[in-house]
Amino acid sequence: MIKPHNTNTEFELGGIHHTALVCADMARTVDFYSGVLGMPLIKSLDLPGGMGQHFFFDAGGGSCVAFFWFAEAPDRVPGVSSPDALPGLGEIVSAVSTMNHLAFHVPEEKFDEYRRKLKDKGVRVGPVLNHDESEWQVARELHPGVYVRSFYFTDPDGITLEFACWTRQFEASDTTTVPKTQADRRVPAP
After folding, report:
1. SUPFAM superfamilies from the xrefs (predicted)?
2. Is 8 domain-assigned?
3. Can you give the CATH number for the domain in which 45 is found?
4. Which residue, 1, 123, 150, 181, shows the most beta carbons closer than 10 Å to its own?
């Protein structure tokens, strides 16, 4: 299995501990993440003062996906708090400080099997995207320039999820893009 493995010279990080998301219906979230995706529920608790709940699911490799259910959480705003569509099917922009999507690493040899399995469970999945360095950065077919294969789907609250697998090791030439700044943004007028 290909995964990046580089040395952090500042902190000894062991990966993502957990990502905390917000759901509208914790029972439906448990059903999807444990029932459909097979992630064991490892911790659940009610928050103080009736504020809500916090549940943790084992995402494998020592990482967890956690959910808050807040009694007074506002609804999702597609195109603002989350993308309006799945990558490959429509607009993927979301607002600054939001989570655009959550990607799970899957074994390359099981990639197609897992896509079929989700479809068999009734999950709507987007097209397979073979990410490469071409003009549109995606190819229909797998070729030596593809660095990651992925497909996207959503959970019951519209959170965009991705199953992805690396297909090659990275080199110094993979990090030559010049970072943009706040001044480069094209923010629409209110």
Report:
1. Glyoxalase/Bleomycin resistance protein/Dihydroxybiphenyl dioxygenase (SSF54593)
2. no
3. 3.10.180.10
4. 150
